[in-house]
Design a protein that fits this description.
single chain; alpha/beta; Rossmann fold; 29% helix
């Protein structure tokens, strides 16, 4: 397990909490220098569907927040993204997990829209859709500092996923994978 900035005992989520998950690099294998544009390019990180099933037993809400500028670049269509997400949801559901909703930003980074992480538009839309979401009882799990900035802007607890530990005040805990995070919470999967 990686060095942790805070002790895991400081974290005890329950059904009143919301889990925000980034997609690429957390749920599925990231395509370096490219985008997951079609279903056959989507590959779960080993063990993630089961981990999400375990996390589904802990958290009241689980949502995905993902930047998808491949759409804005014209490399894929919205319909392509939706087909990829159907495949992802089928795999998660087959393992006994759930995702309550997927939020995505199709815009280019240069567009400076409110929905692109680290901006908080996707989280604010989630809270509008699910008014019970309390950002002080929410966790953002991501593999980039833009994910950590997104979480901290709303005072969420932040979990950084990555093979190499980094020292940054935006990160509350670090794990090598979503599976390791779920195991720390003693999620049953």
């Amino acid at each position: 397990m990686m060095k942790q900035e805070m002790h895991s005992k400081d974290l005890s989520p329950d059904k009143s909490w919301t889990l925000f998950l980034d997609r690429d690099g957390v749920i599925n294998e990231r395509l370096v220098g490219d985008y997951v544009k079609k279903p056959d390019e989507f590959r779960f990180i080993e063990g993630v569907p089961g981990a999400i099933a375990g996390l589904s037993n802990i958290f009241g809400r689980i949502v995905i927040v993902t930047n998808q500028q491949g759409i804005g670049k014209g490399l894929m269509r919205l319909s392509d993204l939706e087909i990829v997400h159907v495949k992802m949801l089928e795999g998660i559901h087959a393992a006994g997990g759930r995702i309550d909703k997927i939020y995505y930003c199709p815009h280019l980074e240069s567009d400076q829209c409110d929905c692109r992480k680290p901006n908080t538009g996707m989280a604010l839309q989630a809270q509008k859709d699910f008014p019970e979401i309390d950002f002080n009882k929410s966790i953002m799990v991501g593999d980039g500092l833009h994910d950590m900035k997104f979480g901290k802007a709303l005072q969420m607890y932040t979990i950084f996923i990555g093979q190499n530990a980094i020292n940054n005040p935006l990160i509350d805990l670090q794990f090598s994978s979503l599976i390791a995070f779920a195991e720390m919470l003693d999620a049953r999967f």
